Amino acid sequence: MARAARTPVRCAAHAADVVTYSPRVATAKAEETRERILDAALSLFRQRGFDETTMRDIAAEAGVATGAAYYYFRSKEELVMAFYVRTAEEAREVIPPLIARSHDLGKRIRAIIDTQLKQFEEHRRLMVALVRIGIDPKHPLSPFGEETGDMRNASIDFFRLALTESKPPITKDLANDLPRLLWLYQMGIILFWMFDESRGQRRTRALLDGTVDLVVRLVQISSLPMMGRLRKRLLAILRAVEG
Predict the structure, then answer these.
(1) Residue 216 contacts residue 109 (beta carbons within 8 Å)
(2) pLDDT tens-digit profile of 41-70?
(3) Which of 55, 66, 80, 115 is 20 to 30 A from 171 via CA?
């Protein structure tokens, strides 16, 4: 049976021509070639770095003509977007069952972040190279940009799922805004992890061990009736900032 592949579609609003993807039916051979090119690119990004790797290098590594590589991916940025998509698809398969294992909010948050770090573990060099892109929300590859919105929202939804029937329970007024705050917390952890040169990223693990418990305690405290007015004021500020 033919598999649904992702065909490049240009983002006309951006000169970089980074892409989104729309489904089409492709032959198994075409899909295998596309995946082989992506795997070759990720391997070279790890070995040489993103900036130092060329599309010609990637084609040679994948065992295809340079023109064939450009047929599937028009730039290295498109390859990064494909990596983002692949990672998001893997997360959708892995994370929900992990969340279902426990109602403990701390364990759920930790499971989500640990899974994301594990997915990115062998790609730290690429992630560091992309930091300059990430801080520009107008860049198509930025995790804060419009083109990555679906993947960002899917990641936020993991935290929304983690809050469902969690212990401690979450007040209704926090339920709408807390998933995004937890996603931002995760992004901070990932940024710290990118530049953590300790053995096995030991410092990142220590940071997670201490802050996940602290986050849960803060959520628990903010849910107390006596914190209602302060909680509403804080949420009003957050919503005003988000526009």
Answers:
(1) yes
(2) 999 999 999 999 999 999 999 999 999 999
(3) 115
- Considering the entire predicted model, what is its pTM? 0.81
| Cα separation, 16 vs 12, whole angstroms | 9
Taking CA atoms, 13 is separated from 20, 171, 216, 228, in Å, by 12, 40, 41, 43
DSSP letters, 168-210, are S---HHHHTTHHHHHHHHHHHHHHHHHT--SGGGHHHHHHHHH
Q: Which one, of 229, 111, 210, 221, lies nearest residue 170 by Cα?
A: 221
DSSP conformational letter for 145: S
Which pairs from 211-216 meet CB under 8 Å and 24+ separation? 211/185, 212/106, 212/109, 212/110, 212/113, 213/106, 215/106, 215/109, 215/182, 215/185, 216/105, 216/106, 216/109, 216/168
Contact 147, 20 (CB under 8 A): yes
Coil vs helix vs strand at 25: strand
Does 96-242 carry CATH code 1.10.357.10? yes
Cis peptide before 168 (omega within 30 of 0): yes
The residue ranges of every structural domain in the chain are 3-76, 96-242
| Confidence at residue 239, expressed as pLDDT on a 0 to 100 scale | 72
CA 120 and chain centroid, separation = 9
Percent of the chain exceeding pLDDT 90 equals 63
